[in-house]
Amino acid sequence: MASSKAAQSEATREALLAAARLLFAERGYAGTPTEEIVRRAGVTRGALYHHFRDKQALFEAVYEQVHTEIGRQIVAAAGAAPGPWEKLLAGNQAFLDACLEPAVQRIALIDAPAVLGWDAWRAVEARHGLALLQAGLQTAMDAGALERQPVGPLSHLLLAALSDAAMIIARARDVRATRREMGETVERLLEGLRPARR
Fold this sequence. Notes:
It is a single chain. This protein has 2 domains: 1-52, Arc Repressor Mutant, subunit A (Orthogonal Bundle); 55-191, Tetracycline Repressor, domain 2 (Orthogonal Bundle), CATH 1.10.357. The chain is 81% helix and 0% strand. The protein has helices at 2-27, 34-41, 45-51, 55-80, 84-98, 102-116, 118-142, 151-171, 175-191. With 198 residues, it is an all-alpha fold. The radius of gyration is 19 Å and the shape is elongated.
């Protein structure tokens, strides 16, 4: 009995997340009333507030979900690359590729900073992206593909550059051309961190 109640509770939470994600992607945070979310999810308003303190908390959970999926894409792309340098490049490019998705643009890049505030937005971004970036940079340094230096500051600066590139892509008139330009720029930036050839 308890396990079926827990399963029902989890199913309700997942239905709310799925409905909210779809609506936030289509209409944005401001254009999505909670009444529409519960209607689309097929649950009651009470169920919404049982699982989430308010609409902003629901949005933050959707944003976390989006970042989790981006992280999986980064790991898959890096895992398919042959060496540490190529893995680092592939992971960064996978992040920028994810930013081509309209749902990612709307939820993670346009609405999240405004809805959550910079600190909360950046905390989620750091929680999901910073560890991956640090691991990629450290592995590349250990393999001699990057000049040795403190990984912490470098990963924070690179994450900020990638985040800004993603924002620029999301707001561009021609997202594909802008994505290509940003990808090339990130690659040149990383090339500048490679050891000097003797």
